[in-house]
Amino acid sequence: MTKFADIKGFVFDLDGVITDTSILHGTAWHQLADSLGVAWSDELANGLKGISRMDSLEMILKAGGKENDYTQAEKEQLATQKNTNYVAEVDKMTPANILPGMKAFLDDLRAKGYQLSLASASKNAPRVLGKLQLADYFPKIVDPASLTHGKPDPEIYTKGAELLNLPANQCIGVEDAAAGVAAINAAGEVSLGIGDATELGAADMVFADTAEVTLDNIAKKLG
Ligand code: G6P
Ligand code: MG
């Protein structure tokens, strides 16, 4: 098992980790599901965390038994509709939307010389970082368009470590989604989950809240 002293880099998810956009994604998908007559549930909402735009749409259609009701062109239109609603909300964001403690954590990581990269499935990640005024912290972003497989496949986290020129076991991956924790584990990185300990039970360490994510607390858990 990796020791805290071996850690040199952090590979971050964005939505639900650095900012509360997972709520905005959920609201925009919920709206679309309502318009399609697909019943919404917390389980469906949680299952969509970390999942790419088109895969999310497929999951929603499947949940409603409607996976064969639309052509590819119609599906793309539905995904665009969701994205238009989502982006309108993103454009209202300010640095006040950074989750508690995350700015201080990023500042501490930077001051102590840890390397940072972003492993978000979102094509809107650069836009969100801009709104939060955090773009400077993440010059290294995995391009989700370059991926063959989404989370829980390890590809995005493997690429996140490669951008830092670090071996996987010297990186901590930070996630709020079960699919993301699975991706980090499969990439051979140390997994830090933020959220419900049962949902994120596969993580090497879980914090209930972003405010608890500090280097001291990580060191205590990792040893
Ligand atoms: C993140 C979010 C997902 C979202 C995905 C794609 O992984 O957790 O909820 O569907 O990004 O985001 P995008 O902005 O490209 O539609
Ligand atoms: Mg997330």
UniProtKB/TrEMBL annotation:
Q: Which InterPro entries match?
A: B-phosphoglucomutase_hydrolase, Beta-PGM, HAD-like_sf, HAD-like_SPP, HAD-SF_hydro_IA, HAD_sf, PGP-like_dom2
In this chain, the site described as Important for catalytic activity and assists the phosphoryl transfer reaction to Asp8 by balancing charge and orienting the reacting groups is at S120, K151
Keywords of the record: Isomerase, Magnesium, Metal-binding
Q: Give the protein name, as stated in the record.
A: Beta-phosphoglucomutase
Binding of substrate occurs at 13-15, 29, 48-53, 56, 82, 120-124, 151
Enzyme class, first EC level, given as a word: isomerase
Please list the residues that bind Mg(2+). Answer: D13, D15, E175, D176
What is written in the cofactor note of this entry?
A: Binds 2 magnesium ions per subunit.
GO terms of molecular function: beta-phosphoglucomutase activity; magnesium ion binding; sugar-phosphatase activity
Keyword set includes Metal-binding = yes
Name the EC number(s): 5.4.2.6
* Record GO biological process: carbohydrate metabolic process
Q: What family does the Swiss-Prot or TrEMBL record give for this protein?
A: Belongs to the HAD-like hydrolase superfamily. CbbY/CbbZ/Gph/YieH family.
Residues annotated as coiled-coil are none
Q: Which domain of life is it from?
A: Bacteria
